[in-house]
Amino acid sequence: MDEKKDNQELSPLQKARLKYSPKIPQILQNISAVSFEIGDQSLSVDSFPQISLNPQLRLISQDLETLSKPLRVGVVLSGGQAAGGHNVLTGLFDAVQELHPESRLFGFLNGPSGIPKKKYIELTKEYLAPFRNQGGFDAIGSGRTKIETPDQFEEALKTCQELDLDGLLIIGGDDSNTNAAHLAEFFLERGCKTSVIGVPKTIDGDLQNENIEISFGFDTACKIYSETIGNIARDAISAKKYYYFIKLMGRSASHVTLECALNTHPNLALIAEEIQENKETLVDVASMIADLVVARNEQGKEYGVILIPEGVIEFLSDIKALIKELNLLLATSGVHSKNLEELHSFSKKIEYIVPLLSEAAKSCFMLLPSLLQGQFLIDRDPHGNVQVSKIETERLFIHVVEEELCKRRKRGEYHGSFSGQPIFCGYEGRACLPSNFDADYCYSLGRLSAALIRHQKTGYMAAITNLNKPAALWKAIGAPLHAMMGLESRNGKLKPVIKKALVNLTSGSFQQFTKLRELWRLQDHYAQPGPIQFFGPKEIVDSIPLSLQ
Ligand code: FBP
User: Fold this and answer.
1) Known catalytic residue: 291?
2) Domains in the chain, ordered, with CATH?
């Protein structure tokens, strides 16, 4: 079962970070003397008869007998990397050792499929030592695999029983935590003692609700991207010749873009949820950006910084409709998909597909540059769906803005010179050294998970709240997974899934942004946050996301 780790070389900063002691909230200091009191009762959900009576649990201090038997716990990392994942492992490991020195921790390898396949390694003090406060998920790897089929559920149950696990920690986003709820339900039905606990992870920041203030990894990713945006803005104002179109990761919601905008003050930041609310099309947004370019040109400015959330493409009404039509037309089982595959030249593919589109979809498709048309037609997932996250939206916007400006030039409405530079801030924000906030937060999430497992709670997400206060004052709760569910259509059927939180247009952070953005449009108020700091004044090293303030 053992997998040997490569001998990675650590930089001086990585070595220094190994020595960092994450701050622990008072309530989680003495993990052997905590228990839970019942908090708010949540609504029950039919699909989860076993766990749907779970109330919210609040961690409280309580004198308890020492644990007589060691704990055996499994843990898995699921989905995209997010800074701090290793600290969930070390927080969990340290806490189960404090609860009983013979407790053991097993890490399932390369994502959820490691559970049914029984692929794991034991996580010991020595093994985890080089991962403390480090980025990445490489201690055990991650994956986007799921436990879905009845056979996989049976196999997962077998693994947990064979390893005699008291608890299983699933560190992931909305889908993985939905999976955690199903596993918890299934284990209870089958009389299996393994508690299933979820941990909120994703740089996208869309795993938020009344109990979850933010997912881990969001703070570090936004700080990394904000550093780049600040530097690019400084370049823009120095060279005065480029418009930078910066696409920011975030599969669907625009939380990352909003946070980075508040940090750096670009000339324009698109917020997908607002675009959807206003039912705007690609042409509408192109025209809005062209207005900005013209207005800045009138002030003698031929440069600027524009932030684009990765997910915006699916919020533009015309593109959304186009994607829907293409997905239906090119479903893998369909005849058009096969016919298209047989056509080798790109122009032939276009000739084939265009007549099949509705008039509206056709005119939207024809607006796209050929590179992008290719991304819509060729880069498709195994079900034949357009791979939205692969579409180079930053190039798409440069193209449509150029077209719009060209029309305005012909009409004598614009006389400037526009040069767009595409930039993508993505993967570099996921596996980096975690900020102090994420290092502390994740360590606490690991400790709280140990407490939930020790008290045999199942079907919960570990939730640390009061995050805008100093770490010592953070609170800890067990948030019932079933209460986070909403019904969504999956493969034509309504299924309970943990709801993704989009940017709330009435939230304080969005309101703050709308108050300031007019000022940022024409005047240059760029702020340069610089790199994440680990040493120095508290207000800098321990800063938290602005949207939490
Ligand atoms: P998770 O939701 O799994 O944390 O991943 C989020 C994310 O980083 C998105 O921001 C991005 O669109 C996607 O993953 C990229 O996925 P992949 O790693 O498969 O390219």
Assistant:
1) no
2) 2-217+434-484 (3.40.50.450), 223-425+506-541 (3.40.50.460)
